[in-house]
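WARN retry 2 of 3 for item q-0093 after timeout on previous attempt; input resubmitted unchanged.
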Amino acid sequence: MSKLTKNQKLSAAKIEAGKAYTLSEASALVKEITTTKFDASVDIDVRLGVDPRKANQMVRGVVSLPCGTGKVVRVLVLCTPDQEAAAKEAGADYVGLDEYIDKIKGGWTDVDVIITMPSCMGKVGPLGRILGPRGLMPNPKSGTVTMNVANAVKEVKQGKIDFKVDKTGIVHASIGKITFTPDQILQNAKEFIATIIKLKPAAAKGTYIKSIFISSTMSLGIKVDPKSVE
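OK item q-0093 returned
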């Protein structure tokens, strides 16, 4: 087992063993225990009392973070020619259709989000084997298959993210950067958790939110008291 560095020891000393912090306290503490020299991401992990193997207990949705993600999101819009100008004006980094479909078939996937139109799905659908494993396949449920591509681009650029519970019952997401203020982290965390609560499946029994942890890239996790956010 590797030894803790001096900074890691100092960070660990700031977290009280066994204590569950309020969301507000955790939002401030995560900044105090982060010592990375780069602008680390702030992550949240929420364990749910659901069985993801059952379709009626799947938790999946989208949320617009009020303070954004702090990330530069590269957006590709695959659309018809009449929508190209609107997509570019909304801030899309790449806009087109056939030429980008050919590039993707050739292995190019240097984007973070792909948005398309229902009428283009006939051409985009076959790319699923390439885009699916990378989490890039457009999906109506996440708002990336839409008639209003310009609005979808704006939402993604402003901080819209999609999430899905994994096979262990945990939802993972990045909700900002460590350079955010504690209040910005708190606002984003609140909105994210509130969205998950709204999506509680009717079939889910017992305790819905079992645990919440907030951390930054390479930092220790901070336990949050679920009662402080419900």
